[in-house]
Amino acid sequence: MMNNHYAHMTRRTFILGTGAFAVSVALAPQQLLSQARTPIMRSIPSSGELLPVMGMGTSRTFDVGDDPAVRAQLAEVMQVFFDKGGKVIDTSPMYGQSESVVGDLLKITGKRDMVFAATKVWTDGREEGIEQMQQSKQLMGVEVIDLMQIHNLRDWHTHLPVLREWQQQGRFRYIGITTSHGREHEELERIMATEVLDFVQFTYNMGERIAEERLLPLAADRGIATLINRPFQRGELFRRAKGAKLPDWSAELGCSTWGQYFLKFIAGHPAVTCLIPATSKVRHMRDNMEAGFGLLPDAAMRKRMITHLESL
Predict the structure, then answer these.
(1) Could you give the CA distance from residue 198 to residue 153 in angstroms, rounded to a whole number?
(2) High-pLDDT (> 90) share of the chain, %
């Protein structure tokens, strides 16, 4: 199953396969108009499957009770996500009721056949992990989990062989490992360098760019897709930009808000496959998804974006 993910992929091959739009190329007006409403797609290196660059996380946002009004709002959030071309929804048993809420809303919105369902195993022990993963499938209500990840490297030596076995059996389409803690980057790097993975997930944003040094280049070299969490630095980036105007030149990228500015910066890195910002607000979902259309910054523009933010 997906045997081609054992093949080594060079960084150059990976970058050429991303399909990102860069502002370094002059485009005719009709080309710009066409691209503006086509979601930006990135390929999963192990298979070549294309995913929209903008996904959705559920940490702290989908862990809700049975309040009909709250559920209705989240259903609208999910509907906007899919209407704007979204596909990847990432969740975890760590996020309370998020898996079951995602499952319920996928049923309500009729989007089970459209979702790329990503979740995680977050426990110690082989049997405990198996039980948890079986429960995740039931809660999400999907026939096959598209991506099963080991959450925050927890007991990864135990879980990874099970993930590989279940992938071979067709229970998972892809497997991966995650972290949201900088202190775990060294261990994650060792795993990426020695283990065969389809995906890796970590934090990367304009305020936390350490992943640029080793994790993103290594993912490109090893042919590993990347999911990016905490793209707004838990709201810190908005606090830094509060009261400031967007630079006029950011309109070249189609940015109309700071949120789009922050997201497009991340998506502009050629080793980034998919961002997973989390929100429970419809207007924020619309704003996030707009960042997945149009142009992305090239290396020179990304440097300019950093310089501007640091000047605030």
Answers:
(1) 15
(2) 86
Domains of the chain (ranges; CATH) run 18-310 (3.20.20.100)
- Record the tokens describing residue 208, joined without a space: 């936390």
pTM above 0.85, yes or no: yes
Tokens matching residue 174: 């892809």
8 A C-beta contact, residue 137 and residue 166: no
In this predicted structure, the answer to whether residue 110 has a pLDDT above a threshold of 60 is: yes
Going edge to edge, which strands form the sheet with 274-275?
A: 56-57, 88-90, 116-121, 145-150, 172-178, 199-203, 225-229, 274-275
| The pLDDT of residue 255 is above 80 | yes
The single-letter DSSP state of residue 109 is: H
Of the candidates 140, 129, 131, 141, the one whose C-alpha atom is nearest the C-alpha of residue 91 is 140
Q: How far apart are alpha carbons 251 and 255 in whole angstroms?
A: 5
